[in-house]
Amino acid sequence: MHFAIFQLALSTLVLGPGDGDSSEAKAYSGRAADNEVATPALDRAQIDIDGRLDDAAWQQAALLTSFTQFRPVEGVEASERTEVRVLVDAEAIYFAIMAFDSDPSGIRATLAERDSYTRSDDYVRLILDTFDDARRAYVFTVNPLGVQHDGIWNEGGGSAGRRHGNYGQPIDDNPDFLWDSDGAITEWGYQVEVRVPFKSLRFPEAEQQSWGLHVQRRIQRSGFESSWAPITANVSNKLTQAGKLNGLRNLDPGLFMELNPVLTGKRIGEFNAADGLFRRQDPSGDFGLNATYGVTSNLTLDATYNPDFSQIEADAGQIVVNERFALFFPEKRLFFLEGTEIFGMAKQIIYTRSVANPIAGAKLTGKLGSLNVGYLGAIDQSFDAGAANTVVNLVRVRQDVGAASTIGAVYTDRTIGANNFNRVAGADARFALNQRYTLTMIGAASFTDNPGLTSRATGSMLSAKIERAGRAVSFNAELEDTDANFDAGSGFFRRIGDTQFNSRFSYNWYGKRGALIQQVGPSFDLKGYWDHDAFWAGEGIEEGEAQLGWRVGFRGNIMFWGNHQRSMFDFAPEAYQGLVVAQTDGSYTDFRPDQSLFGGLSSTTLSLWVNKWERVRGNVRYTFSETPVFDRSFGVAVEPADSRSTEVTLNLYPTRSLVAELGVRQTRLTRRTDGVELSSALIPRVRAQYQFTRSLFVRGIFEYSSQERLGLRDPATGLSLYRVDQSGEYTLRSGSEGYDVHIEGLVSYEPSPGTVFYVGYTRQMEDTESFRFREVRAMADGLFVKLSYRFRM
Question: I want to staple 212 with a disulfide (CB 3.0 to 4.6 A). Which of 129, 561, 666, 772 is the partner?
Fold first, then answer.
């Protein structure tokens, strides 16, 4: 207590938290639109990043004041005062954050793993648009204890292997940068110091330059978000609304080179079905190397040899009992994440997880004037012994046009041999129109050859999307077309051979700050799917969906969503080609179900998200629907069913160091014709993590996946369905079952990105019956150790 009082007094003497001013600091009021900052520059700042804010250099820093709330209520003065100081020296840019709070006991802060807390903790986010192009920016976020969360803001969205989840903001939070921060909770709020070295940033080679700057603050207990430079949802590009750091002169990152040697060891065990024994291999070790070289201040070369991804947490289990299309898994591997915003597009023509087992790779990314360039090459080792490796080349260029528009091109190549390749060439454009509107267009062609084709296959893809941003009214409409021969071997498309139309209209009404209802509004979605050839021939729709949704935001950061939708399916007879019914006399007849069974199907979903309390938060989602049962190979509807699915997640924060997540997902499909349960899935998952320090944690994961599905049948006769191939061989469309148990443990020490020590163990087991736990058999396990150090020169 005495130390806290001393620290408060010392901060008061140096920075004046009582009035937020000092005699030498020039103040810039965000609400007064005074956001053109003359950035103070010192030869050497001599600031210790310790969260105390007691260094004399802060008295010479520019002072950013008067924040404006932008969510949920827009345009009013921020509910709590925030002040930020900024200056530069020859090596770095510095920020001092003072976040005042009328109720310091309500501040939410955990000693969390980096990049993990923006849905749980209070934070301040610094957004640096170093090229001042309103298209890409660095994001540095700190919670009240100075724990780091960083990434890239990419206007236009799109990623080479990730989907964004930052409250709708286009932030890829996987890239990690080297920077310093520390913070402390005080009797008046919290304070944080930040130092970002120029070596961690890319910026123009210019004697004098300006950077865009946003500073945002979020208070979790209320859900209020504010910004130094005022933000409005009526402008689609948030970076165009940023303030400016002017007068930045002679910025020089110096020689920039990083080496990251990696040593790994592992011991793997597997169950041998032939003899029924579980055997472990001898321990093995490996060496890998990552290197980064700053060719210029705005162009970076990365290389990797034998990259190791053993530290990556297992992907959470996904329910696949009635899934028609491929599942998307986000990219988490560090080498592929650097510069990912350059390779990103509105459509996933580049999906870096298609490089599954790389031996080596090289990458060149950066910006030359107004031209963004990216190249990634890799050798992907086959998982089949003796099979040839795949050579992967990915090229991306994007030219800035006007204030916030772009045009670009992409080329991908996957080659195994002279007559075994997949290549895609395409172009895209994104036009910002009248601030509110954005038009995005993409076109691509694929060229594929392999021993299984009688001739080379050529396919095409086209997409156009118009969007309107607005605080009250927003909408979008998109048309996408792919023909059946389009093959993005280095990309990810869930559906091929379709023409799709998607649109959404939404309206939002906002209450006054402090009102019980903070936000409410309806939305309407309309979707249609046609077979590609049928669409261009003017034939009927194959699938359609209309959905009415409702969203309500309550005081205390509580959100409710509800929607009701009607859908229909009408598959052409040729879509069932190869599906037959086994008759009682041993003959087979073509399967052609009555499509009227799949018209006018209803579905209702209710969701509740609660982030009101400090120690316990969570969400629940429930859906009851009428849905077709799909054949997963053919992607066609077989018979109607009633579906009930529930997803519950409970997040526990008993201390600042301990975080636990308890989750369960359950789905059950019942045949409408006879009431028999057709399929079910139940996946409970527990994840607990204890953070000893900002660098050291221990984590455990337990997941049980029980998934069952009966074989497919003809709903009219109840007879079994078979698949017949070109050779005339019949295969029963049988059911499946799986009762998998996954356990994972990890001890991690990571003082900075790239400098790590991991010890982990994972075990995959199989139960004989759902949740029986009596004869659980080990199927595989693995112990791994990883040691790496990131050298920066």
Answer: 129
